[in-house]
Protein backbone atom coordinates (compact mmCIF):
# COMPACT_ATOMS: atom_id res chain seq x y z
CA UNK A 1 0.00 0.00 0.00
CA UNK A 2 2.78 2.40 1.03
CA UNK A 3 4.59 1.68 -2.25
CA UNK A 4 1.48 2.50 -4.30
CA UNK A 5 1.14 5.87 -2.56
CA UNK A 6 4.83 6.58 -3.04
CA UNK A 7 4.71 5.68 -6.77
CA UNK A 8 1.54 7.79 -7.30
CA UNK A 9 3.19 10.78 -5.61
CA UNK A 10 6.27 10.45 -7.81
CA UNK A 11 4.13 10.28 -10.98
CA UNK A 12 2.06 13.33 -9.94
CA UNK A 13 5.25 15.24 -9.17
CA UNK A 14 6.63 14.35 -12.60
CA UNK A 15 3.40 15.49 -14.36
CA UNK A 16 3.42 18.80 -12.47
CA UNK A 17 7.05 19.39 -13.42
CA UNK A 18 6.41 18.72 -17.10
CA UNK A 19 3.37 21.08 -17.13
CA UNK A 20 5.59 23.72 -15.53
CA UNK A 21 8.24 23.11 -18.16
CA UNK A 22 5.67 23.51 -20.95
CA UNK A 23 4.34 26.75 -19.35
CA UNK A 24 7.87 28.13 -19.29
CA UNK A 25 7.99 27.77 -23.08
CA UNK A 26 4.92 30.04 -23.61
CA UNK A 27 5.88 33.49 -24.84
CA UNK A 28 4.67 35.96 -22.14
CA UNK A 29 4.02 38.54 -24.88
CA UNK A 30 1.07 36.40 -26.02
CA UNK A 31 -0.95 37.49 -22.99
CA UNK A 32 -0.02 41.19 -23.09
CA UNK A 33 -3.03 43.32 -24.10
CA UNK A 34 -2.15 46.40 -26.14
CA UNK A 35 -5.73 46.82 -27.39
CA UNK A 36 -7.00 49.87 -25.54
CA UNK A 37 -4.90 52.53 -23.89
CA UNK A 38 -6.71 53.98 -20.86
CA UNK A 39 -7.24 57.74 -21.17
CA UNK A 40 -5.08 59.84 -18.90
CA UNK A 41 -6.95 61.51 -16.05
CA UNK A 42 -5.54 64.04 -13.62
CA UNK A 43 -6.86 63.12 -10.17
CA UNK A 44 -8.39 65.81 -7.97
CA UNK A 45 -6.81 66.80 -4.68
CA UNK A 46 -8.85 66.51 -1.47
CA UNK A 47 -11.88 65.00 -3.23
CA UNK A 48 -11.92 67.68 -5.94
CA UNK A 49 -13.20 66.57 -9.35
CA UNK A 50 -10.72 64.66 -11.51
CA UNK A 51 -9.98 66.16 -14.92
CA UNK A 52 -12.61 64.15 -16.81
CA UNK A 53 -15.49 64.72 -14.36
CA UNK A 54 -18.48 66.94 -14.87
CA UNK A 55 -18.97 69.31 -11.95
CA UNK A 56 -22.67 69.30 -11.07
CA UNK A 57 -22.42 71.85 -8.26
CA UNK A 58 -19.51 74.26 -8.25
CA UNK A 59 -20.41 76.01 -5.00
CA UNK A 60 -21.65 79.11 -6.79
CA UNK A 61 -24.99 78.45 -8.47
CA UNK A 62 -27.55 75.83 -9.42
CA UNK A 63 -27.21 76.37 -13.18
CA UNK A 64 -27.01 72.60 -13.74
CA UNK A 65 -30.21 71.94 -11.77
CA UNK A 66 -33.96 72.50 -12.01
CA UNK A 67 -36.92 71.94 -9.72
CA UNK A 68 -37.59 68.21 -10.19
CA UNK A 69 -40.05 67.38 -12.95
CA UNK A 70 -40.11 70.96 -14.26
CA UNK A 71 -37.98 73.43 -16.18
CA UNK A 72 -38.23 75.95 -13.33
CA UNK A 73 -35.11 77.07 -11.44
CA UNK A 74 -34.04 74.94 -8.47
CA UNK A 75 -35.23 76.81 -5.38
CA UNK A 76 -32.63 75.72 -2.84
CA UNK A 77 -30.30 78.14 -1.04
CA UNK A 78 -26.70 78.54 -2.24
CA UNK A 79 -24.30 80.06 0.28
CA UNK A 80 -20.64 79.57 1.19
CA UNK A 81 -19.94 76.86 -1.42
CA UNK A 82 -22.89 74.82 -0.17
CA UNK A 83 -26.46 74.30 -1.29
CA UNK A 84 -29.14 73.68 1.32
CA UNK A 85 -32.62 72.23 1.07
CA UNK A 86 -35.34 74.84 1.38
CA UNK A 87 -38.17 72.86 2.99
CA UNK A 88 -41.25 72.60 0.75
CA UNK A 89 -39.33 74.03 -2.24
CA UNK A 90 -39.38 70.50 -3.64
CA UNK A 91 -36.71 68.12 -4.89
CA UNK A 92 -34.12 69.32 -7.38
CA UNK A 93 -32.64 67.37 -10.27
CA UNK A 94 -29.85 67.68 -12.80
CA UNK A 95 -30.66 69.09 -16.21
CA UNK A 96 -28.40 66.48 -17.72
CA UNK A 97 -29.37 62.81 -17.72
CA UNK A 98 -27.09 59.96 -16.64
CA UNK A 99 -26.92 56.17 -16.71
CA UNK A 100 -23.83 54.29 -15.51
CA UNK A 101 -21.77 56.68 -13.44
CA UNK A 102 -19.41 57.44 -10.60
CA UNK A 103 -20.85 60.15 -8.36
CA UNK A 104 -19.06 62.05 -5.62
CA UNK A 105 -21.23 64.06 -3.27
CA UNK A 106 -20.71 65.60 0.17
CA UNK A 107 -23.57 66.26 2.58
CA UNK A 108 -24.30 67.52 6.05
CA UNK A 109 -27.31 66.91 8.25
CA UNK A 110 -28.24 69.98 10.29
CA UNK A 111 -27.49 70.22 14.02
CA UNK A 112 -30.77 72.03 14.48
CA UNK A 113 -32.71 68.76 13.91
CA UNK A 114 -30.83 67.19 16.83
CA UNK A 115 -31.40 70.27 19.03
CA UNK A 116 -35.09 70.20 18.13
CA UNK A 117 -35.25 66.55 19.25
CA UNK A 118 -36.22 65.23 15.82
CA UNK A 119 -36.00 61.45 15.63
CA UNK A 120 -35.51 58.64 13.13
CA UNK A 121 -36.50 59.49 9.58
CA UNK A 122 -37.30 63.07 10.61
CA UNK A 123 -33.70 63.88 11.56
CA UNK A 124 -31.53 65.20 8.73
CA UNK A 125 -33.33 63.32 5.97
CA UNK A 126 -32.65 63.87 2.29
CA UNK A 127 -31.58 61.45 -0.40
CA UNK A 128 -29.75 60.96 -3.65
CA UNK A 129 -31.97 59.42 -6.28
CA UNK A 130 -29.98 57.88 -9.12
CA UNK A 131 -31.98 58.09 -12.33
CA UNK A 132 -34.57 59.89 -10.20
CA UNK A 133 -35.69 56.51 -8.80
CA UNK A 134 -33.04 54.65 -6.84
CA UNK A 135 -32.37 56.30 -3.49
CA UNK A 136 -29.14 56.22 -1.54
CA UNK A 137 -30.48 57.50 1.77
CA UNK A 138 -29.17 60.64 3.40
CA UNK A 139 -30.01 60.83 7.11
CA UNK A 140 -28.39 61.73 10.40
CA UNK A 141 -27.29 58.22 11.41
CA UNK A 142 -25.11 59.20 14.37
CA UNK A 143 -27.00 58.37 17.58
CA UNK A 144 -30.28 58.36 15.69
CA UNK A 145 -32.06 55.01 15.58
CA UNK A 146 -34.29 54.06 12.71
CA UNK A 147 -34.98 50.92 10.68
CA UNK A 148 -31.60 49.77 9.38
CA UNK A 149 -32.58 49.68 5.72
CA UNK A 150 -33.49 53.34 6.09
CA UNK A 151 -30.31 54.67 7.68
CA UNK A 152 -27.67 56.78 5.91
CA UNK A 153 -26.15 55.00 2.88
CA UNK A 154 -28.86 52.35 2.79
CA UNK A 155 -30.39 51.64 -0.58
CA UNK A 156 -33.68 52.78 0.83
CA UNK A 157 -35.71 49.83 2.17
CA UNK A 158 -33.60 47.40 0.11
CA UNK A 159 -30.06 47.15 1.45
CA UNK A 160 -28.73 47.78 4.95
CA UNK A 161 -25.20 49.29 4.92
CA UNK A 162 -22.43 46.84 5.88
CA UNK A 163 -21.25 49.13 8.70
CA UNK A 164 -22.09 52.61 9.97
CA UNK A 165 -19.27 55.15 9.47
CA UNK A 166 -21.56 58.15 10.02
CA UNK A 167 -20.26 61.16 11.94
CA UNK A 168 -22.30 63.64 13.95
CA UNK A 169 -24.87 66.00 12.48
CA UNK A 170 -23.27 69.31 11.55
CA UNK A 171 -20.17 67.58 10.12
CA UNK A 172 -19.52 67.04 6.42
CA UNK A 173 -19.72 63.47 5.11
CA UNK A 174 -19.08 61.99 1.69
CA UNK A 175 -20.53 59.39 -0.61
CA UNK A 176 -18.77 57.91 -3.60
CA UNK A 177 -21.32 55.95 -5.55
CA UNK A 178 -20.65 53.63 -8.47
CA UNK A 179 -23.91 52.97 -10.22
CA UNK A 180 -24.84 50.58 -13.01
CA UNK A 181 -28.13 51.45 -14.65
CA UNK A 182 -30.71 48.74 -15.32
CA UNK A 183 -31.06 47.50 -18.88
CA UNK A 184 -34.36 46.80 -20.62
CA UNK A 185 -35.21 44.56 -23.57
CA UNK A 186 -36.87 45.83 -26.77
CA UNK A 187 -40.25 44.69 -25.37
CA UNK A 188 -39.55 46.89 -22.30
CA UNK A 189 -39.11 43.93 -19.95
CA UNK A 190 -36.14 43.99 -17.57
CA UNK A 191 -32.91 42.67 -19.06
CA UNK A 192 -30.63 43.31 -16.06
CA UNK A 193 -31.19 45.14 -12.76
CA UNK A 194 -29.34 48.19 -11.46
CA UNK A 195 -26.36 47.75 -9.14
CA UNK A 196 -24.75 50.13 -6.69
CA UNK A 197 -21.52 50.33 -4.76
CA UNK A 198 -21.37 53.00 -2.06
CA UNK A 199 -18.33 54.26 -0.17
CA UNK A 200 -19.38 56.34 2.84
CA UNK A 201 -16.70 58.54 4.44
CA UNK A 202 -14.09 56.32 2.76
CA UNK A 203 -15.65 53.07 4.00
CA UNK A 204 -17.40 50.61 1.71
CA UNK A 205 -20.99 50.12 2.85
CA UNK A 206 -22.69 48.73 -0.26
CA UNK A 207 -20.66 46.28 -2.33
CA UNK A 208 -22.19 45.95 -5.80
CA UNK A 209 -25.67 45.29 -4.44
CA UNK A 210 -28.54 44.45 -6.75
CA UNK A 211 -31.29 47.04 -6.71
CA UNK A 212 -34.74 45.45 -6.83
CA UNK A 213 -36.52 48.36 -8.47
CA UNK A 214 -37.32 51.97 -7.60
CA UNK A 215 -36.91 52.54 -3.84
CA UNK A 216 -40.46 52.90 -2.56
CA UNK A 217 -41.81 53.94 0.84
CA UNK A 218 -44.70 51.46 0.76
CA UNK A 219 -44.77 47.91 -0.55
CA UNK A 220 -42.29 45.94 -2.61
CA UNK A 221 -40.16 47.45 -5.35
CA UNK A 222 -40.50 46.32 -8.96
CA UNK A 223 -39.03 47.57 -12.20
CA UNK A 224 -40.88 49.33 -14.95
CA UNK A 225 -39.27 50.47 -18.17
CA UNK A 226 -37.50 53.81 -18.32
CA UNK A 227 -35.01 55.54 -20.59
CA UNK A 228 -31.30 54.61 -20.54
CA UNK A 229 -30.42 57.93 -18.88
CA UNK A 230 -32.28 60.06 -16.35
CA UNK A 231 -31.55 62.97 -14.00
CA UNK A 232 -29.99 62.67 -10.58
CA UNK A 233 -32.45 63.96 -8.01
CA UNK A 234 -31.85 65.32 -4.50
CA UNK A 235 -34.72 64.95 -2.05
CA UNK A 236 -36.51 67.65 -0.10
CA UNK A 237 -37.64 65.82 3.04
CA UNK A 238 -38.28 69.08 4.92
CA UNK A 239 -34.92 68.92 6.71
CA UNK A 240 -32.28 71.56 5.97
CA UNK A 241 -29.62 69.17 4.68
CA UNK A 242 -26.71 70.76 2.81
CA UNK A 243 -24.62 69.50 -0.12
CA UNK A 244 -21.30 70.52 -1.63
CA UNK A 245 -18.63 69.34 -4.07
CA UNK A 246 -20.84 67.30 -6.39
CA UNK A 247 -19.20 65.79 -9.44
CA UNK A 248 -19.88 62.90 -11.75
CA UNK A 249 -18.07 60.73 -14.25
CA UNK A 250 -20.10 58.86 -16.84
CA UNK A 251 -18.94 55.28 -17.21
MG1 LIG B 1 -34.51 60.20 2.14
Your description of this structure?
By secondary structure, this protein is mostly beta strands. Helices cover 11% and strands 29% of the residues. The chain is built from two helices and 15 strands. The chain has helices at 2-23, 111-115, and strands at residues 54-57, 65-67, 77-79, 82-84, 92-94, 101-108, 126-130, 134-138, 173-180, 183-184, 190-192, 195-200, 203-210, 233-234, 242-250. Strands 1, 3, 4, 6, 9, 12, 13 and 15 form an eight-stranded antiparallel sheet that branches. The radius of gyration is 24 Å and the shape is elongated. It starts with a helix and ends with a strand. 31% of the residues are buried. Bound molecules: magnesium ion (MG). Magnesium ion is lined by residues 125-127, 135, 137-138, 235, 237.
Amino acid sequence: MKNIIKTTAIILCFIAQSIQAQDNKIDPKKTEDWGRKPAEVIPGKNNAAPSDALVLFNGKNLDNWVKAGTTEPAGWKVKGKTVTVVPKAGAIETKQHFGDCQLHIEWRSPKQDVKAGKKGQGNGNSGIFLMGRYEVQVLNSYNNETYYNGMASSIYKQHIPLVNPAVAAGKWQSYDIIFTAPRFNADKSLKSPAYATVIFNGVIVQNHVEIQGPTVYRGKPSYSFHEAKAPIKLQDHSNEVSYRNIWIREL
